[in-house]
Amino acid sequence: MALEFIVGLTEHRTFGYIFQAFLIEKRISFYAIEKLVKLRDLASLNLNEEQIALVKQIEQYSDEKLVQKFSKLKEASKFFQQMDPDLFENHISPYIDKHINRIIRLLMGGQTRLFFKQAKYSNLYDEDVITVPTTFSECIFRFDRSEAGTRYSLQLEHDNKPLNLLHRTVTLVSSNPCALVWQNKMYAFEKISAKKLLPFFEKEAIFIPSQVEDKYYKSFVLNTLKEHSVKATGFTVSAGEGNKRAILSLEPNLRMEAIFLPKFEYNGNEYLANSKTEVAVSLKQENGNYHFIKILRNREWENGLLQTLKNLGLIEKDGSWFTKGAELLSDIDRLYELISWIAKNRQQLNDAGFQLQQNQFEKRYFTEQQALDIQIKTNADWFDIYANVTFGDYQIPFLKLRKYILNDIREFELPNGETAILPIEWFTEYKDLMHFAKQDGQVLHLRKYHYQLIQKRLKGIDKSFYQRLLDIGKNAEKKVALPANIQATLRSYQHEGFSWMYQLYEHQFGGCLADDMGLGKTLQTLTLLLKLKRLKKQIVIPEFDTHSEQMSLFSDTENHKNEEQAEKDQPASLIVMPTSLIHNWENEIQKFTPSLKVYKHFGIQRKKAGGFKQLLGYYDIILTTYGTVRNDFDLLQEHEFFYLILDESQNIKNPGSKTYQTVSQLKARNRLVITGTPIENSLSDLWSQINFINKGLLGNLAYFKREFITPIEKKNDPEKQEKLQTLIRPFVLRRTKEQVARDLPPLTEQIRYCQMTGNQKRIYEKEKSAIRNQILENIEKEGVEKSAFVVLQGLTKLRQLANHPSMLHDTDENESGKFDEIFRSLESLMAEKHKVLIFSSFVKHLTLVKEQIEMKKWKYSLLTGQTTNREQVIKSFQEDPDNRIFLISLKAGGVGLNLTSADYVFIIDPWWNPAAELQAINRAHRIGQDKKVMVYRFITVDSIEGKIQQLQERKSSLAEKFINSNNPFKAITKDEILNLLS
């Protein structure tokens, strides 16, 4: 026989009647219970979806489940013995009722049979079957009012037929809502609780005397009308639409988080959007009569309004509404977000019919639209910014909000006491503007070099003028015409660099030319100065009298006239540089721009006091050093220069240094800095140089540290990086050698002229005098040809002194101008991450360089005649990206090396054998090299090196003897030797 799945209504020892699931088998006159079905049995039984659902619901109130949910005790017996009555009444019983009612609904809509199952018996009979109806029973409340009071009764119906349960014995299955069994038939009510039915099983009606009925009508009758059908006499109940309105309330929840609560009001009765109450009832009393107006909630109207909130970006969770992402914000930011949402969507909310409320906040927040109106006018050096904010009926100057925006304060109190929340966009868009602009009355002045800060706020600005600013550095094809008398052919990128500087000049902006070492920054700068050269009165400047601070041939009257004329003319440009670069600048001026008159203002013979002003009016360029600026600051600060240019401007990277302080205070119409390494260690290096060219562009140093250095260097903040780049981009031009490689020849050679230090010069001159006397004495005795060794020995000593006095005098106190220049250049190349070969014919010279490299903790390789592991040394340099310096002796490295990873070559002590130098250069510049190679020869001026260099440039007979002869002393004369030693 097949087993049948049924549900049995059985009595629990503690909870009253409950449902259980069974499998029964049909016998002749009864049904035998074969199995109590539990959740664990589902896998082994072939049940349908309805039966599975019934088992799952029944399992929810099993003893094990109830103990697990409502007790910390592990033993069920103890739990039921010690059960707290309040726990049962308020928690356990409603929980069981919930699942009992779900089972009843499943039975009403399904095919499963229901039986009475007595606890002590395991057999069932046909008379135990309980009929389960497919519809709910109805309950109509009757209120009959008379002068004496109100009679209250119930009228029960099922399938539109009276259901009389007065004095009947019923089995209560569920309390809320009520479900009962009478005469083997179940009656289930959809809403009403058993508490309201049970009194009428014992008596027909309840009477409420007139003395207490007022309270009764206002509470019980009114609430009954909301939820149930009512028949009334002695008072009226009418249906109608009534007055309704939609409310959107901003208020805190129990966790004090700001939320929106949509509410709907019907005739003064307010309901939350998620309230299940469907009927709104209001009461009117007139002359002792009660009149109820019963209004059915208009769900279609409500849902349309809720959809409007969703369309405007709100989301709902557990009855609370808020903007997407608001749950991730802090409490105060969440509140500000919701207030901003109201202001943004206020018109749409009004149009939809919402009335806005704020409840339970300490402050009253302004939720109307805020509008910011900005007008910008262009001035010579400034943008004049006029701005007002409209808060509803109030108009506030934007300047009043300055301290709020700078200090991230979003709350602003309006004159009426309401608190306005400043939009978060104002802080991101205008904080920089507020910081950098200067206040003048009701106007903000913003310097022109901050033009990128107003890029999105162009109302009132001259569009064509602003576009010209935006085009700075962007229109490389629109190159400025080169000056006609430039004695050089500029490469394309050099022409672009000159054009960029000229554009900055036109707008009176300072600039930082930060090209890689060797790309011709000096030439680009000189091209600019030549382009801007003005015609001047021809004032004859005689040779300076080295014994006087005044020009020897000018009378006082002539001096006065010339000073007046100089004031009308364009003054000289002052170029400040390390001492070692003076000669290089002078040489390039003579070579490329010989029409620019140049004066070197350094050393003991430099002009001071009155004579300097006349120099300013006559010369185009004054070359000076950082040390001279510090020493002559009182003199230099009295004058205005046309251009103030700093070469190797990383010298002012420390804003606390005297060098930075002095050069920053000099007066100039235009400013420019030149460097291959604008940032050596920290972003503060950049600040000092940018602040020099465009004071205030990056704010003060404290602001710059807070706003940029800390976020970028410690947190690598990409937003701050982009913001900084936006600010400096128009004023910094940097091209790497790789970027302009198409414009470069395969090999570029330059000479770096190096000045001797004062002490080096004294040692050199002393040794030169002694060597000269020794050679003369030897030539007198032996003749020129037999004096070759003595001459060579003497010239070699002078070469060593020109390199570094420590090569002859082994002491740490010696200084060398060439040595300083080598390391100044190396600093740039290491910062730019280039690889460099350093060749010397003196191992001692390489050793001095090596010791300094080790002090700087740079990685390097060394190859001399003593090196045994050549292949390993070469491989380390070629393949290790951090090993960027290769020190090589000319003798050891002249042949057999392939060093194509290097793109710079330093020849630090050149001499008269070009063949040896060419071999050295070819270590890098050879087949397989994909980079453009730059060669630097370091020549000490006013030394034996300088003499030979001059001879090579003039291609004199003496140069030919030295350059092309294996034994130059065979053909050289005494006078020629003495000339080398002059």
UniProtKB/TrEMBL annotation:
<feature type="domain" description="Helicase ATP-binding">
    <location>
        <begin position="502"/>
        <end position="696"/>
    </location>
</feature>
<dbReference type="InterPro" id="IPR038718">
    <property type="entry name" value="SNF2-like_sf"/>
</dbReference>
<dbReference type="Pfam" id="PF00176">
    <property type="entry name" value="SNF2-rel_dom"/>
</dbReference>
<dbReference type="GO" id="GO:0005524">
    <property type="term" value="F:ATP binding"/>
</dbReference>
<keyword id="KW-0378">Hydrolase</keyword>
<dbReference type="Pfam" id="PF00271">
    <property type="entry name" value="Helicase_C"/>
</dbReference>
<keyword id="KW-0067">ATP-binding</keyword>
<dbReference type="InterPro" id="IPR001650">
    <property type="entry name" value="Helicase_C-like"/>
</dbReference>
<feature type="domain" description="Helicase C-terminal">
    <location>
        <begin position="818"/>
        <end position="981"/>
    </location>
</feature>
<protein>
    <submittedName>
        <fullName>DEAD/DEAH box helicase</fullName>
    </submittedName>
</protein>
<keyword id="KW-0347">Helicase</keyword>
<dbReference type="GO" id="GO:0016787">
    <property type="term" value="F:hydrolase activity"/>
</dbReference>
<dbReference type="InterPro" id="IPR049730">
    <property type="entry name" value="SNF2/RAD54-like_C"/>
</dbReference>
<keyword id="KW-0547">Nucleotide-binding</keyword>
<dbReference type="InterPro" id="IPR000330">
    <property type="entry name" value="SNF2_N"/>
</dbReference>
<dbReference type="InterPro" id="IPR014001">
    <property type="entry name" value="Helicase_ATP-bd"/>
</dbReference>
<dbReference type="InterPro" id="IPR027417">
    <property type="entry name" value="P-loop_NTPase"/>
</dbReference>
<dbReference type="GO" id="GO:0004386">
    <property type="term" value="F:helicase activity"/>
</dbReference>
